[in-house]
Amino acid sequence: MAPQTRRMAFPRVVVAPRETDSEQSSSEEEEEEDPLPEYESEPEVENGNGDKVEQKAPITITLKKVCKVCKKAGHEAGFKGATYIDCPMKPCFLCKMPGHTTMTCPHRVTTEHGVIPAPHRNACNPLEYVFERQLRPRIPLIKPAYVIPDQVTCGVIRYHSRRVTCLEFHPTKNNILLSGDKKGQVGVLDYYKTSEKMVYGNIHSCIVNNMRFNPTNDGAIYAASSDGTISCTDMETGISLSLMNLNPDGWQGPSSWRMLYGMDINPEKGVVLVADNCGFLYMVDMRSNSKSGEAILIHKKGSKVVGLHCNPIQPELLLSCGNDHFARLWDMRRLEAGSSLFDLAHRRVVNSAYFSPLSGSKILTTSQDNRLRIWDSIFSNMDTPSREIVHSHDFNRHLTPFRAEWDPKDPSESLAVIGRYISENYNGAALHPIDFIDISTGQLVAEVMDPNITTISPVNKLHPQDDVLASGSSRSIFIWRPKEKSELVEQKDERKIIVCGRAEKKQNRKLGNGSDDSDDDITLKGKNVKSKKSVTKLTPYSRKGKL
DNA sequence: AAAGAATGTCACC
DNA sequence: TGGTGACCCTTCTT
Predict the structure, then answer these.
(1) CA of A114 to C1' of C4 (A)
(2) What pTM value is reported for the model?
(3) Cβ-based contacts with strand C at under 7 Å
(4) Which of A29-43, A46-60, A414-428, A492-506 has the highest mean pLDDT?
(5) What spans are recorded as compositionally biased (Acidic residues) (predicted)?
(6) Which one of A37-46, A77-86, A135-144, A320-329 scores highest in mean pLDDT?
């Protein structure tokens, strides 16, 4: 039999004998799913006496519904309304363990998303001693309560024509947000003055994987792209310089094409660090804008290095992660193949690995095995993570990979934000919230959603100073802010479910007129809607009839 | 309304 | 090791 693919949309045709007096199906498509498994596949049926009788005629053809995941009858995976029913033959889609489905997964029904607690460890090595002496005082002893608003407004910006792949806030100019997309476009937006936005389409020719502002000249943007180049662009003029090109001879076929993924800037050393899809790290001197030194193999040869992060406190520490299932900690003074300080093993691809933003002493990773991992101290035992938190952020080739991001404003370095893959049935709508997680406990502190937003938001960034969250979801960018400053309240023990824009939903849908003029495409819900055309873009409804 | 396309990772040979 | 095909709770266009 030819291999069956998931695309097979129609039920398998089964030739089954039927009782001679059975009714004809009024409609094959409307046939209810059979609650008795395997019934129709039996070659024999019972007569009234319980004897097996071979049926010869007439033969009718029925279309039997089978599960689209396992191709077996008796159940069907997929959306029932706004609730997704898992295939029971598969491991749980959330925690990946067999024996239950997502609906009954213990990590779903509790607010602690399945924390595997850290074993107690003794602090005894010299590095940890230094940490305790020099860095620990920076961290408050008592964790302050998170300040998360009860209500938020959400602005929607649409100027990318392909899905958003990365977001970056300007470090000092408060309202400036950078965005990159799959097509290679780079957007610079002032989200308070929506007319002030620029989209640069000629910097890169495909996916912008990472962007950074130049810390010494914050009008300059560095970007690494799958086109194999790293660019430095003037934010105001869009004038761009290519600092490095891994494909100087152009397209010579997929096997030779090289792409740039992970990127970060080390201001102390004045270098841009960038890594490719073959396991190599490159350094570009920011003064001369030229490559310095040779490429260094930092991950398995031939594997993508998707993330680089320089330690915010100790400039000689570098963190990398990639498709070889490892995050690795490096000493910049001794960067050579195989010389990493620590190799942090994961079960799947590591989408991101970040030092904590203030002390730089913790590490947070996002892996495609649906787990966040936290190492509480890079100066302590690094053999196993301090905590693993089960969270739904699966890989899907059509989505930008999820990355858990620290809240740079949280002095206790324990709040992280990450989009959620699996949907929640919210009043009949399948919504994908954006989760705020206390990574010291695994508790889901808050989940943010909007009935108008039915798409998944894999890209999220918290503002370095303000209470602003930027999300990239498909081609749109969302700016979430507290609805009223006065409504800010301290976080209690229970998680908050923050729903935005609920009342406006139907009104907005009626107003839409389908115009695709994109000059005025930002709207803040909760305030007056500016125009019909902008409202149209507020309603990216899915076609599954979930609303 | 439903099909088609785009197209990373992983297991398997 | 490199090629192949299955997998995936997508999202948008035709």
Answers:
(1) 36
(2) 0.80
(3) A 3-6, 69, 77, 84, 86, 90, 93-94, 102, 255, 302, 394, 396-399, 421-423, 430, 432, 454-456, 473-476, 540, 542-543
(4) A414-428
(5) 26-45
(6) A320-329
